[in-house]
Amino acid sequence: QVQLVESGGGLVQPGGSLRLSCAASGFTFSTYAMSWYRQAPGKERELVAAITPRAGSTNYLDSVKGRFTISRDNAKNTVYLQMNSLKPEDTAVYYCHAKRGIGVHVSDYWGQGTQVTVSS
């Protein structure tokens, strides 16, 4: 049974930090690219950060570059998102996503999401 379980969300003041974790099980984690998406109320889901299977490459949404860092520990089947200098506009539900393959051979999974609220 495939599971992606996010944790670490919560309420934080502007300028604060949070570290999200996503624990994976039920598939070969080290062969999947991992990503964090977010969705704010009334907005479409957007890609925040992504990391290749062996952590050789990362990419970020422009608005989070320099503030957020994605990392992974393949020994622990876990991906992280360190979020610093948080802003109210970072408020959203954050989702973990796993993906492998291309075209009709894509295999992907989603977590249930964790709420991040940035407010004073």
Overall description:
The protein is mostly beta strands and 120 residues long. It is 0% helix and 52% strand. It is built from no helices and 11 strands. The chain has strands spanning 3-7, 10-12, 18-25, 33-39, 46-51, 58-60, 68-73, 78-83, 92-100, 107-110, 114-118. The strands form 2 sheets. Strands 2, 4, 5, 6, 9, 10 and 11 form a 7-stranded mixed sheet that branches. The protein has a 4-stranded antiparallel sheet with strand order 1-3-8-7, with no helix packed on it. The termini are far apart.
Would you spell out the secondary-structure blueprint of this structure?
Blueprint: E1 3-7, E2 10-12, E3 18-25, E4 33-39, E5 46-51, E6 58-60, E7 68-73, E8 78-83, E9 92-100, E10 107-110, E11 114-118
Parallel strand pairs: 2-11
Antiparallel strand pairs: 1-3, 3-8, 4-5, 4-9, 5-6, 7-8, 9-10, 9-11
Descriptive labels:
seven-stranded mixed beta sheet; single chain; four-stranded antiparallel beta sheet; mainly beta; 120 residues; 11 strands
According to DSSP, the number of beta strands is: 11
Mean pLDDT: 96
Helix content: under 10%
Shape: globular
- How far apart, in Å, are the first and last alpha carbons? 40 Å
Strand content: over 45%
Rg to the nearest angstrom?
A: 14 Å
Q: How many separate helices?
A: 0
What is the ordering of alpha helices and beta strands?
EEEEEEEEEEE
Oligomer: single chain
Task: Kindly summarize this structure in a few lines.
This protein has 120 residues and is mainly β.
